[in-house]
Amino acid sequence: MKKTKISPLDFKFVPKDPDPNFSPAKNRKVIREVIKATEATRRKKGREHNDAYQERAEAVTSYLKSLDTGRSNSDILKYFGRREMARLKGKEVLEKLNDQLTVYGRLGNVLRKPS
User: Fold this and answer.
1) What is the per-residue pLDDT across 91-110, written as a single tens digit (0 to 9) for each?
2) pTM for the whole structure
């Protein structure tokens, strides 16, 4: 038996007449554009990810150098502060997202509104 990409059980869903406006060239063009846009987005997110790692590494390096030179003997939370630590951990983004949400309780009452 010849193998096909469409199961014989699914032939009832395949239209009998092809779409008159279908263009294989346009279809290939759309696929190329989507792949190009996806790759650009992937590269952009990769750069942002690497930049975030580099920033964290530089922050840790500055803390360790201050400990090594004796300029600071405090723990890391005191060195950076609560907000900067949250930002370095990436929690700043979550706080911004949470600020945009309205939180409702079990009874439907509003617990917190967007600020």
Assistant:
1) 666 566 666 777 888 888 88
2) 0.49
